[in-house]
Amino acid sequence: MKRIDLHVHARPARFSPEALRKMYDELSVSRGVCQGGDFTKGQTTLDLYPDSVGWMFCSPAQLINDGAGKNEILEYMQSCVEAGAAGFGEMTPHIYIDDDRMAPVYEYIEKTGLPMTIHLAAPRESYGLIDDLGLAHLENVLRAYPGMRILGHAVAFWAEISGDVTEETRTQRSTTPVVPGGRVVELMRKYPNLLADLSAGSGSIAMTRDPAFACRFMTEFADRVYFATDMTGDDYSFDPPRRLARLLDESVESGALSPEVYEKVCFKNAQKLLNK
């Protein structure tokens, strides 16, 4: 069995193909999804990382931040889809997630049927789609675009897995046990179009901070949770994906996680999402 990494940033200036393949071999990853790939500049990430990257997501985030018009943004997205984009992301414009400027973007994504990975941020953070404590703006988007599958990611998203999150702690990677009443759990139960990207320190710690909760969470939402790393370069800390992989392996070995759920989280859900 080989995992699929639903979230990696593969750029030759920072991440050599050899280093990425070495990390993937340690994690038993077959292929990854490059977030923020660009299909418009000759060689693509698929060409540069033939042994490691199997799919690319594209993002109009820079165009949105630069104030580009609707037509320019949609033309770029259309060109990426025509070139084979498997989804959209990592979506990082530094505006509220339900800002009117995002409406045509969401309408187009929903129309394509492709998934979108978001980087959710608190207002004081430097980049990412913004939401407030309690994720009311994310809920607005989930409600307005029921056909758009959103992969939640980043600290401001995963902090809300616990019911005790505060304005201060929502930008921190808490290591205390999960308290019932988290908004992420509530939204996952209410909106089947919300998916969970387990990448980076935020996703890894959200699971490893409370392994018993993590197994219940992955079991309840077995069809909507995805192994991912968010690795970005040769000097990237490899500890978060190692911890996540170890949690998954130890949980299935102990019986805390069923083999069926394990396989879904590690690769089957990604295969289905990517139509592979």
Number of domains: 1
Biggest β-sheet: strands ordered side by side in the sheet: 1-2-3-4-5-8-9-10
Output the helix-strand order: EHEHEHHEHEEEHEHHEHHEHH
Distance between the termini: 15 Å
Q: Please give the largest β-sheet.
A: 8 strands, parallel
Within CATH, the superfamily carries the name: Metal-dependent hydrolases
* Tally of DSSP helical segments: 12
Strand content is: 5-15%
Indicate the percent of residues in helices.
40-55%
Sum up the overall morphology in one term: globular
What does this structure look like?
This protein is of the alpha/beta class and 276 residues long. 41% of the residues lie in helices and 14% in strands. It has helices spanning 17-27, 45-48, 61-65, 70-82, 103-112, 136-144, 155-158, 183-190, 200-208, 211-220, 239-254, 259-273; strands at residues 3-8, 29-34, 53-58, 87-91, 116-118, 120-121, 129-130, 150-152, 194-197, 225-226. Strands 1-2-3-4-5-8-9-10 form an eight-stranded parallel sheet. It has a two-stranded parallel ribbon with strand order 6-7. The protein is globular. The protein starts with a strand and ends with a helix.
